[in-house]
Specification:
With about 120 residues, the protein is mostly beta strands. It contains no helices and 9 strands. Strand 8 and strand 9 form a beta hairpin. The mean pLDDT is about 95. The structure holds FE2/S2 (inorganic) cluster.
Length: about 120
């Protein structure tokens, strides 16, 4: 059972620049991706850094023995402390998806964003 909490205005959440809000005594980062808004707890599951204050980025993916490409631009957040990369939509750590940042559902009503906690 979750409860809906007002978070901020949609205009407050820029692309590639998450909005950090404090709701229900939690620090939460809200991200604006091409498929809508997503939210992660602003605590890294590794050692507790402010995860959502790290850069929004992509990652390097190997395509052959000698080629790497930069992929998934704007879909990941990289923790500033040790560089762990997390999928913003699922909260999963790329190297080990069993390690997850806590995520929250987000809904939009008019110009208002709500978090479901
Ligand atoms: S605290 Fe986030 S990667 Fe270590």
């Amino acid at each position: 059972m979750t409860t809906k909490h007002y978070a901020c205005k949609t205009a407050d959440v820029m692309r590639n620049a998450p909005k950090i809000v404090s709701v229900s005594n939690l620090s939460i980062g809200i991200f604006n991706l091409n498929d809508g808004y997503h939210a992660l707890l602003n605590i890294c599951p590794h050692k507790g850094a402010a995860l959502c204050e790290g850069p929004v980025c992509g990652t390097t993916r190997q395509t052959s023995d000698r080629e790497f490409v930069y992929d998934r631009a704007g879909e990941l957040v990289r923790c500033a402390w040790h560089g762990w990369e997390f999928d913003i939509r699922s909260g999963e750590f790329l190297v080990d998806p069993t390690v997850k940042a806590r995520r929250f559902d987000v809904s939009v009503e008019g110009d208002d964003l709500y978090l479901h906690i």
